[in-house]
């Protein structure tokens, strides 16, 4: 299992604008960045990326999430693969906690 504290630290270090910008052409629009949604076919941009909230949202189809979720949805990565890719991009090593298996006994 990947520790929750590591995920928070990772998301704090990663810039979602850079991550999404690898796949979507983004243009600055006020405080946010706008682009054509990669999750549905559209002609006018309804896809926004917030650098302050580190979150993406499409007002057309409702897609939304963090950098991890974007890589999972757009690049087809699993959760661990998306975490690993982001961690490598910022020079972190993904720690793993042993998973809790079994009934615990007593």
TrEMBL record:
Keywords: DNA replication, DNA-binding, DNA-directed RNA polymerase, Magnesium, Metal-binding, Nucleotidyltransferase, Primosome, Transcription, Transferase, Zinc, Zinc-finger
Molecular function in Gene Ontology: DNA binding; nucleotidyltransferase activity; zinc ion binding
Keyword DNA-binding on entry: yes
Protein name: DNA primase
Zinc finger CHC2-type domain segment(s): 33-87
A GO cellular-component term linked to this record: primosome complex
UniProt-listed InterPro entries: DNA_primase_Znf_CHC2, DnaG_primase, Znf_CHC2
Cofactor(s), names only, from the UniProt record: Zn(2+)
GO biological process: DNA replication, synthesis of primer
Source species of the chain: Burkholderia cenocepacia
């Amino acid at each position: 299992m990947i520790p929750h504290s590591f995920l928070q630290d990772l998301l704090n270090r990663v810039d979602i604008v850079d991550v999404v910008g690898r796949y979507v052409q983004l243009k600055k629009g006020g405080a946010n960045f706008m682009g054509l949604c990669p999750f549905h076919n559209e002609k006018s941009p309804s896809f926004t990326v917030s650098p302050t909230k580190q979150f993406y949202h499409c007002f057309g189809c409702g897609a939304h999430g963090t950098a991890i979720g974007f890589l999972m949805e757009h690049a087809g990565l699993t959760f661990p693969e998306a975490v690993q890719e982001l961690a490598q991009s910022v020079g972190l090593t993904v720690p793993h906690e042993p998973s809790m298996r079994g009934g615990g006994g007593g």
